[in-house]
Specification:
Length: about 110
């Protein structure tokens, strides 16, 4: 009786091993496809996360650039205003010097 059970167990084990082998072959393709899909999904998720970070960085840089642009424009406007004042003052001084030169030329000619 023990040998009969042992023989039956061996036969059942062989049959189970063959079935397992066939299932591995059949399911192996599915497992490879599942692994490839999982890898592609993880890669897409990583790219999406990276794109989100880049978008946030760009938004922050854009905001800082706008703020910087406002202060640079104000600084340039102040500089232009100062230059216009300096130019007006210099033009006035030039006009006065030209007038003085002409007055002195006339004075010398009268002598």
């Amino acid at each position: 009786p023990f040998f009969i059970i042992e023989d039956a167990s061996k036969a059942t084990r062989k049959c189970a091993d063959r079935l397992e082998s066939k299932l591995m072959i059949k399911n192996g393709g599915y497992m490879k496809r599942a692994d490839a899909i999982e890898k592609a999904t993880l890669q897409s998720f990583a790219e999406l996360s990276h794109s989100k970070i880049e978008g946030e960085v760009y938004t922050m840089l854009s905001l800082h650039e706008r703020n910087g642009m406002t202060s640079r424009i104000k600084k340039l406007e102040d500089e232009i205003e100062q230059l216009e004042k300096t130019e007006a003052s210099s033009q006035k001084e030039y006009g006065e010097l030209l007038h003085e030169q002409n007055r002195l030329i006339l004075l010398v000619k009268r002598l």
